[in-house]
Every structure is written in C-alpha cells, then in structure tokens.
C-alpha cells in the first residue's frame, strides 16, 4: 500500500529506557520498542536520549515543564478538522435536518423548538480518545507519551448534525463510491447516506460504479440513487455500486468531480481508499473547489488506526467462527484429527484473534504480529504432537499474513499495489502432513479456507447499527462543511478524525495487549520460538 509516513520531529527524554515513537505506541503500546534513535534537534543530545517520533510535528523536551501544553497544542492542530471555510469565506445557514417531524428546523420566530431539543452537536464538543490512566509504561498495553506515563487529554471532534450548515441542499449533487475489497455493511452505509441526504433535502444523489475506476473508465455511468432504490439493499451482501482496486489517478478523478459538478463525495473503503480520499480532498483544495470529501472506514481486517473497529469486522468474525466450528467438528470426529483454518487479514491478525477467542475451539492461533517457528523443540509441530497425545485432536487458526517469513515471496502486487501474500494455509497443511508421516503418527488433517465467505455476506446486527451511525454522520460532516475527514467510532463515541491521522500505517494487534494475552489464555498455546 502506497501510503506515506508523515514528517518527523523528535522526542527528547532524560530516561534511557524511553525509546518508543508515537507511531509505535499507537500500533503496539509502549512495550514494543523498535523506535529509531536520533539526535535531538533542540538539546542536541545524542542517541539514545532522544527518539524520532513519526507523527509529532513539535519537538518535546520532557524536562520542560510546559511539554504537556506543547503536546496538546500540537494534538489540537493535528486533529483539527479541515473545513471548506478554510479556503472560502462562506456564511452558514440554519440546518434543514430536522430532528422531529412537522417542525420547522429553523424554529419559530423566537428560535425555541430547535434550542429546546438540544439535539444538535456543537462544533466545540469533543470525545476523549484514551480513557485509561496507565501508572507505568510497563502496564499491559500501556500507551504513554512521556517516560512517567503522565495523563494527557487527547480530545477528538464529536460527530453528528450541526445547527448550521454550509450547503443549500436543493443545489447539492452528492456522490457515493465504494473501493477496495468487499466488506459486509457497504450497502447499509450507502442506504443510510442516501436516506440522510434526502432528509436534508438533497435531490441529486448518484453512485459511482466500481470504485475510483468509475470516475474515469469510459462506459461506466453514474447511477442515480434515491430512498426508493436503496430501501432494501442492506438485505444483500456485496456493494450495490460495485468495487474495484487500482487505477487511482487523483487528477483525473478530480477532473471528473469537477465535470460532474459534485459537491459532496462519500468514500467507503480501507487504508488505500482513505489515502485516495485524502489526495482527492487535497487536490480539490488546490483547485479551490467547494467539495466535501468524507470517508467511512470499511474493512473486515479492522486495520485502521485510532478507531475501535471498522464496519464489517464483527460480521467477518462471526462468519469466521462458523469455519472454525466446522474444523472443530471434523477434527473432533476424526482419529487424530487436526483442523486448520486460514482467515483473512492482509497485515494484521484481528480476525484470527477475535474468531479464535469467540469460538473457544482453537488450540493454536497464529498471527503476523507474533513470529513463530514450525519446526524444532519449541515449534508449532511439536505442540501439535503434544495435543494429539493429550486430547486426541486439535484446531489451528492462522491469519493469512502470519509466518510470511517462512515462505518464498513472489514479489507480486495487486492492482492497488498491495503485496500478494504467499499461502501460509497450504504451506502449513503440507508441513503438518509431512511431519506426522515422518514421525509415523497418524494425523487426519482437514484444511478450511473460508476466505471470501467471511466478507461476502450481509452485515450482522451490530455492524448494521455501526453502518447506520457512520453513514448518517458522514452526511452531517459534509453539511457541516468538513472535508478530508473520516466518520468513525473511537472509545465507544462517534467522532470525526482527519484522514491524515488514520493512514500513517496499518493498525496491528499489540502482542502486549490484554486481548492477545486473553487469546493465549484461551488457547493455552506456548510461545513458538
Ligand atoms: N496512496 C494512495 N493514494 C491514492 N489512492 C490510493 C492509494 N492507495 C490506494 N489507493 C486507491 O484506493 C483504492 C482502494 O485501495 P486498496 O485496494 O488498497 O483497498 P483498501 O481501501 O485498502 O481496502 P481493503 O481493506 O479492501 O484492502 C484503489 O483504487 C487504489 O488505487
Ligand atoms: O482478493 P482481494 O479482493 O484482492 O482481497 C483480499 C484482501 O482483501 C481483504 O479482505 C481486505 O483488505 C484482506 O483481508 C485480503 O487480503
Ligand atoms: Mg488496504
């Protein structure tokens, strides 16, 4: 994936053990130390007294009593939401989004109805991104900013409808596009965006077919959308508009946006799609176009930074459980049965970890964030021998990106530039069969690869609700005049984040998190190295 890391600044610390960059802490928590050493620009202290922080824009010296204030000022700048009023001098108008039927949203001449309901979100409302106060960087899963793990408030912007809006609904043309791989809930989000736009009074709503490709590929026509047309699309999986990978040419896309006179663009997709949405937002700004680009994070992999989860993840986990259950039944019923399930996750093991936890039927869970060996005294194969001896059967769940270092790389990439992974499932199946043949122990290996089944289904109840809220909030964000933002859930609250903050790297399982430890407790597996 061709996302770029942001420009770096440096942290300075008097404590030698403090070597964790901001990005590393976001990805792994404080126990995972692979930060780069550097020379602190301010104090000129040599490494390792100072650490390169990839997502900070200011230099922090923790000896400076005002470091917290500096951090917070930088934080506020980073999480400030880009608005169309940054480039235009626009006057807002009262919203047309009414919280109650049969009432004038503008209120009576005293303005009382709207004020009384308190149903609108204020632009100064914030939600806290982090709520745990860690007493030490050594606490499980700790995410600390300074060596003492001081409490620093990290506020982000609350999502929802505003009292004042920056578009005339009757004049708005809104477009929706779905990019990347399929994901349960795409249709639910499309449907809610259309419903909410219509509630504001928008009449011109279109779908762009087959991802970003629909903007420039000849013969792909935009699809007019309405409540009537999308009313039941949530009953099916997939995307009503179609998806695609690759072919993103920002300037051509923005030419097309300009030619089609699109005012609001809703972009549903993962990391790559968000990078594309941000590039479109930047290009629109450069051309001084009054266009709001709002993203909704979609991916079964759950690998987007800062948010609790992406839509589709819960459903994928639920479906994955079914595959695990089949593997369990097969293994349990066979003499020396070994059930092996490979689950998706391009760069992270969230689906494998959560499906293993929720099924309760997995003896070995392997994810890319935790290296393992197959052979040798502490290898997976020796543990399988032990499981066959002691319980007679076993179930393994392996994430598709796990153990890539054990396999030959093809070097191939897909149309979007994502690396095509080597097949760890097939490799493990062969290795297990060979191993038990070699040691003369019968083993009945059943391999299940439910790959596309976990994402080609309709959203479950919890995802359907998430999609509803995120889709509606995306429209509120556009009407509020924001652009270059994503509509997501952080710490159980619905918020807007600037896209730039969520695309610096894929989110990965923290091997020091309580969740991974719970998974290990549940499977009972040892360390495999
Ligand atoms: N850095 C980037 N800048 C602009 N566009 C990008 C960038 N990375 C990817 N894209 C475009 O975004 C679209 C989707 O990207 P990608 O195929 O990586 O899926 P994704 O959004 O990451 O979702 P998934 O979770 O299914 O992988 C593609 O059309 C791709 O060309
Ligand atoms: O085969 P496709 O459609 O390119 O997608 C495969 C990838 O898409 C995902 O489902 C979502 O990113 C990954 O888990 C998987 O690696
Ligand atoms: Mg991706």
Automatic annotation (TrEMBL):
The keyword Transferase applies. Belongs to the phosphofructokinase type A (PFKA) family. PPi-dependent PFK group II subfamily. Atypical ATP-dependent clade 'X' sub-subfamily. Mg(2+) binds at residue 271. The record marks 272 as: Important for substrate specificity. It comes from Oryza punctata (Red rice). GO terms for cellular component: cytoplasm. Keywords: Allosteric enzyme, ATP-binding, Cytoplasm, Glycolysis, Kinase, Magnesium, Metal-binding, Nucleotide-binding, Transferase. Homotetramer. GO terms for molecular function: 6-phosphofructokinase activity; ATP binding; metal ion binding. GO terms for biological process: fructose 6-phosphate metabolic process. ATP binds at residues 181, 245-246, 270-273. The gene is PFK. It is found in: Cytoplasm. Its EC number is 2.7.1.11. InterPro entries: ATP_PFK, PFKA, Phosphofructokinase_dom, PKF_sf, PyroP-dep_PFK_TP0108. It comes from the Eukaryota. The keyword ATP-binding applies. This is ATP-dependent 6-phosphofructokinase. It catalyses: beta-D-fructose 6-phosphate + ATP = beta-D-fructose 1,6-bisphosphate + ADP + H(+). PANTHER family: ATP-DEPENDENT 6-PHOSPHOFRUCTOKINASE 1 (PTHR45770). It holds the Pfam family PFK.
